[in-house]
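Why does residue order matter? Because the sequence determines the fold. Keep that principle in mind as you read this record.
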Amino acid sequence: MITSTTGPQPADFADVRATNLAVVLRFVREHAPCSRADIAASTGLNKATVSSLVADLIDRRLVRETGLTENRVGRPATMLVLDGSPYAAIGVEINVDYVSAVATDLAGQRLLTWRRSFSGGDSVNQGVAGVGAIIRRVVGRMAKEERQILGLAVAVPGLVDVQGTVRLAPNLGWRDADLGGDLAKALRDPGFPIQVDNDANLAALAEQRFGAHAGASDLIYLTGEVGVGAGIILDGRLRRGGLGYSGEIGHVQLDPEGPECHCGRRGCLEAMAGIGAVLRRIPPPAEIQVEIEECARLARAGDAGTLATLESAGRSLGQGVSILANLLNPEVVILGGYYVPLAPWLLPAVQEELSDRVVASAAGGCQVVASTLGHDAAALGGAARVLDSVDSGRLPGGLSRIP
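Structure:
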């Protein structure tokens, strides 16, 4: 979740009420159970305004009352918690051989988690048709539960510009695809917003809202799929760069004489520490999971060749992480995807490289850990992005503000 070190503050926008509804909703999300008096004291809004805003949020079924508490000085107070039972946020990740879908309620509780095999076909149109069919099933399930869809965010492994156009997704064979527009047509203008973003960006949002380091202001997520990308959160905000292409750490060159990378250069981080380097080849997508499990089995059994390969990959990965630590000084770097099951053998070498290469003492306070969110991180991050939009003021029920 996008947070501020000063806490939520009422903003001075033309639509003050819409802005302050979002302020109150964020406060309840972060501090529930809480009272109207708690909200007024922390936000600076007066009590009458808070009472009016809370009544509006209750009418929208975004907040509900949950009884009285007497564990405070003075009269018992009616406590508030998130409701959101009529709503759902949907996140979808498109990968080389699968599509993951996650739906959550307003509080982030999972309503549905699906993973389906996927073949992108020979064109973007065929890929959109396949993804659209899966999304329609998710939307249908939510409709049966009488939930209004707050929005859909789709994660793609590739370059996605700030308008949401997929400029290049090499592993899918997509280029210059208006994925959001194409999906809206495939879903026959579904009536909810569709956003598209890079998979690492959305996975970073998932970690910040739901992961073991939730709330971290400076966090980097490294994908561990066929490619290696970085989702970067600094000062509590996702950083996409000028055109949206930030985070391509996988194509930072570590060794000009190193192995050839599919981008055409040699010695890129992805070529030296990606899954292809660990497995000594890039197998067909359907075989990657099986080969990763076999690699972990051999490592547990003490196979010397496997351990040496993992140490080498870990050292290269540590070099890449050290560059990030020196440049950005994150609190935590989180390894995701296929790195997670291999983390027990990768992390020691990564930590050694950090100690040797980061200028600041104690690696500048940077921790490197394995994700606890699994392969659904990017899809879950899609749902998180939708919830971020609600937190920013795009509320259901007619009164909204585009941040």
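The longest strand covers residues 148-156.
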